[in-house]
Write a structure and sequence with these properties.
By secondary structure, the protein is of the alpha/beta class. The chain folds into 2 domains: 2-135, 3-Layer(aba) Sandwich (Rossmann fold); 146-245, OB fold (Dihydrolipoamide Acetyltransferase, E2P). It contains 8 helices and 15 strands. β8 (160-166) and β9 form a beta hairpin. The longest helix has 16 residues, at 120-135. The chain is elongated. Residues 3-116 form the Response regulatory domain. It comes from Flavihumibacter petaseus NBRC 106054. This is Putative two-component response regulator.
């Protein structure tokens, strides 16, 4: 069983999350629901949860400030938020999970499943990276937190030439012939890279940096020649979106 608490100033959101967890994620035991950061601090001390569902936008102290106040922590976080473009971008860049309100049951199940796959120690490091990004919000994001088998790497987005799917893992091919194995699906990596307009999914197995394309060769779907000398197949279904970019 997973010991969890939820912190959100909206009572209806807490009630909905509690019901969804009971129905779709029975392995999660919600020990407390908190309507403020102050109540959240108390519940953290009392219950020592493994997982925290944390609202980003709260009066007096938002979720990010609350984490800053905690300093050291040994739990994982799934953020809950209404659409806040900056907050979501920051969370994506840090490779952390979030749920968009109103919470979708399938997304909730997926987020809890990812919790099993991610070590809390790695999550804590990612949270610290997130807070650095939030505190420097006047600076554009340039690096991504990419989970690996032994931690996570901070990778400049512009260094990524292409990404290739391998089941639940993704190979990131970087400049200088470096390759990083991310313990995330290609779909997850695509989500992280969404704010960068220069990345495009050209095949169910491939995502490319458009600035690193050297040549496109026509065919049924065709293929791309990349700056690192590799070739990437283009699927018929994604050919049109690629040609529109050209």
């Amino acid at each position: 069983m997973i010991k969890a608490i939820a912190i959100d100033d909206e009572g209806r959101c807490l009630e909905t999350l509690s019901l969804l967890l009971q129905e779709y994620c029975p392995e999660v035991t919600l020990l407390a629901t908190c309507r403020s950061a102050a109540q959240g601090f108390e519940a953290l001390r009392q219950f020592q949860p493994e997982l925290v569902f944390l609202d980003v936008e709260m009066p007096n102290m938002n979720g990010f400030r609350m984490l800053e106040q905690l300093g050291d922590f040994n739990f994982s976080v799934i953020f809950t938020t209404s659409y806040d473009q900056y907050a979501i971008r920051a969370i994506r860049y840090s490779a952390l999970d979030y749920l968009l309100k109103p919470v979708d049951p399938r997304e909730l199940e997926s987020a809890v499943k990812k919790y099993y796959q991610q070590r809390p120690t790695v999550a804590a490091e990612q949270l610290r990276f997130l807070l650095e990004q939030v505190n420097g919000r006047n600076n554009p994001f340039t690096k991504l937190a990419v989970p690996t088998t032994d931690g996570f790497e901070l990778i400049p987005a512009n260094d990524i030439i292409r990404c290739e799917a391998d089941d639940n893992y993704t190979y990131l091919f970087l400049r200088n012939n470096k390759k990083v194995v991310a313990s995330r699906t290609l779909k997850d990596i695509e989500e992280q890279l969404k704010p960068f307009s220069c990345f495009l999914r050209v095949h169910h197995s491939f995502l490319v940096n458009l600035n690193e394309i050297v040549k496109y060769t026509r065919g049924e779907g065709g293929y791309l020649s990349m700056s690192d000398g590799s070739t990437v197949n283009v699927s018929r279904s994604r050919k049109e979106s690629l040609l529109k970019w050209f």
